[in-house]
Amino acid sequence: MGKVKQLFRNLSLRKSIALYIAVFALIALTSELCYSAIARIEKNYPPSGNQYYLTTEGGEQLGEGIYIGTSPADMSAEDRRAIVVLNTVSTVSVPIYSALCVIAAALLFYRNKLKKPLLLLADASDRISKNDLGFSVDYESHDEMGRLCGSFEKMRAALEENNKSMWRAMEERRRLNAAFSHDLRTPLTVLRGYTDFLKNYLPQSKVSGEKTIATVATMSEHIERLENYVQMMSEAQKLEDITVLTKEMEVCTILKQMRDTVQLVAQNAGLKSDFESELIEKQLCLDFPIVLRVYENLIANAARYAESAVSVRLKYSASTLIVTVSDDGKGFTDEDLKQAGKPYYRNQADSGESHFGLGLYICRVLCQKHGGDIFIENGDHGGAKVSAKFYVKS
């Protein structure tokens, strides 16, 4: 019985309404049933008459003959009343039963095939209009309404994910602005101090020329730092506007450019480089400028912390291009592993460096734009290891 119900639940709307109409059309055949009952009653009262046969010249009978009645048989009063009633019912029931059966078929069709999914969709629409996406549209059927509910659920899930992405972007922007404001205070405080110093002592000729030149040089360095900082901030803000534009590229072209990049950066830093690829594909469909930008950033970071060598590994698996950059430096601290992907993060050893802690953050955003992410860890034999993953079609 359960299988029958499941089979009926999965019937298409067209087949379902056809089934309802067919069933109730059979029910509507009351008039035919009445005529059959009349025939059975009349069979009990054969008319009186003679039966005639065709014969040959030799007197051989042909066929079963024909019966010609002379007068109808007398029926009982009860049977006559029954025939009158049945004739009346058969005549009147045709339009009545037809209308009632169509109505019943439509009502049952609505109750069994339309009511539940329509209520689900109406409730889902109302909750979505109130910006409530914490629910799911569950309707276990494979008919048209089931597919419609499934499409609605996909839309709701997409809206929920979009809202979460927007919330994460807003939260990331808030943290970015907070970090930017916080890090601006130091150079601004220094500039304010030197400005007050010169304003107070320069008019009184209490500052030597050498001291003045040194102060101005320091102020110039901080101004340049502020300019670079603002430029980096602008670059980080523009990441949200980047659109991924994929196109097919020859793998040999990709490998040559990436191999040349690591060799050049390592050579300029006085380091050794090791480049290894496991790619067997001839072409990849990707946004190579984005991939190359992430790659160059990771190579620059590795060269900054490496002691003697930088290594690169390329792998393609399950529609994902994996670019792993390793160095033989000190590796990441526990705090680095937690914070390194956040904007403006710098560890204690970097406090005096000129970089702004945006490198891995930019890499993460670009990887996510390309359907992937970055993963930070320490190598098995020491040193830092960063893997950038990109969704790529071969």
TrEMBL record:
InterPro entries under this entry? HAMP_dom, HATPase_C_sf, HATPase_dom, His_kinase_dom, HisK_dim/P_dom, HisK_dim/P_sf, HssS/ArlS-like, Sig_transdc_His_kin-like_C
Phosphoprotein found in the keyword field: yes
Keywords, alphabetical: Kinase, Membrane, Phosphoprotein, Transferase, Transmembrane, Transmembrane helix
List where in the cell it is found.
Membrane
Q: What is this protein called?
A: histidine kinase
Residue span, HAMP domain: 112-164
Domain Histidine kinase stretches: 179-394
Reactions the enzyme catalyzes: ATP + protein L-histidine = ADP + protein N-phospho-L-histidine
Documented EC number(s): 2.7.13.3
Kindly indicate whether the keyword Zinc-finger belongs to this entry.
Answer: no
Pfam families for the chain: HAMP (PF00672), HATPase_c (PF02518), HisKA (PF00512)
| Coiled-coil residue spans | none
Q: Which CDD domains does UniProt cross-reference here?
A: HAMP (cd06225), HisKA (cd00082)
TM region(s), chain numbering: 82-110
Q: How does it sit in the membrane?
A: Multi-pass membrane protein
Tell me one GO molecular function of this protein.
phosphorelay sensor kinase activity
GO cellular component assignments: plasma membrane
